[in-house]
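Reading group handout, session on sequence-to-structure problems. Before we discuss, look at one worked example. The prompt was deliberately terse, the way you'd type it at a terminal:

> structure Carboxypeptidase regulatory-like domain-containing protein

The input record follows.
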Amino acid sequence: MKKLLNSFLSGCATMACLMTLGCGELRPDGFPDLYPVTLVVTQDGEPLADAMVSLYPENSSLTRWPVGGMSDASGNVELVTYGKYEGVPAGIFKVMVNKTVHEGDPIPESPAADASPAERAAYDRAIKTGSRESFQVVQKEFRTADKTSLTVTVSPDAENSYTLDVGAAVKEKDQQASAVGGGSADYVPMGESAVAE
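And the output record:
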């Protein structure tokens, strides 16, 4: 019995070790090996924070494993593959960088399912009468795979460390993300009745 218990405990310890190391996590079929990449994004020589960075592979067989991440305050990007696995497959990638900033009224938070009629009306009023504009601040040439000149090469036996600069900041209005409220002071939110005078 003692031998059986020791064998069981040894098996549990091995399993716990594998899970801690990530060896026990099942990955999708055909998932490539991943390698660490250090990537810093700058704009005109200064760290670019809050930018969305995407890598587009030269090898079309890797397109099913999207790679990307967000830059932090120092411009460092933690790249993940398939939305959750740290690292990048080996290969040559085009690098796309996008950043949008907003000006004007904040986008209101949607009311909860159990919100009162007054809360729903306040949300509706803010959506209909609010005014906000969104702007792309990275030059167009770095935002799409067909135009970007930025590339990285990821190799199993290399340092894979890159600093990429996207040039001077721009301010191009993003029409799809901008909203100009058409409501007026006498706007009546949905769910409320206009009061006859």
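Points for discussion. First: The first helix runs from residue 2 to 21. Second: Confidence is low (pLDDT under 50) at residues 11-22.
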